[in-house]
Amino acid sequence: MELSTILQPECTTCATPGSKKKVLELISDLVAAQYPTLSSQEIFESLVAREKMGSTGIGNGIAIPHGRLTTIDHPIGVFIKCEEPIAFDAIDKQPVDLLFALLVPADQCQQHLSTLSSMAERLSDKLTLKQLRKTNDSSELYQVITT
């Protein structure tokens, strides 16, 4: 999977959202700004619905919030580095500072799982994590995560 096919530079940012709810809102707003046919509320509700099933905080300061939308025909990614870690109910009870959000078409379950797996693998690389956490520039963040 080429991450650059689903993640745009405009959907990669360093931010200080402050809370889990605020970061999910930020994800929704970033996507809606790039895809005007999508409603930020619809995106937010999809992400929250998934979080209600269990936190997508996978540990080591990483979360992979995701949702399914009937209104898209291709996966859309968002990558956020939180300047201050936020509580995210992660499995290791640690705050989260790196989030990769994924929105997929509702009918593409296998691609959804494959993309989530690839991103989890990418975020398990210690060198990549070190580089991501070191940068405070959105364009550099995009370069690190997509190469």
TrEMBL record:
The protein, known as: PTS IIA-like nitrogen regulatory protein PtsN
One example of a Gene Ontology biological process annotation: phosphoenolpyruvate-dependent sugar phosphotransferase system
Domain of life according to the entry: Bacteria
Organism: Shewanella aestuarii
Annotated signal sequence range: none
Pfam family, one: PTS_EIIA_2
Gene name linked to the record: ptsN
InterPro entries per the UniProt record, alphabetical: PTrfase/Anion_transptr (IPR016152), PTS_EIIA_type-2_dom (IPR002178), PTS_Nitro_regul (IPR006320), PTS_SugarTrans_NitroReg (IPR051541)
PTS EIIA type-2 domain location: 1-147
MF annotations from Gene Ontology: protein kinase activator activity; protein-N(PI)-phosphohistidine-sugar phosphotransferase activity
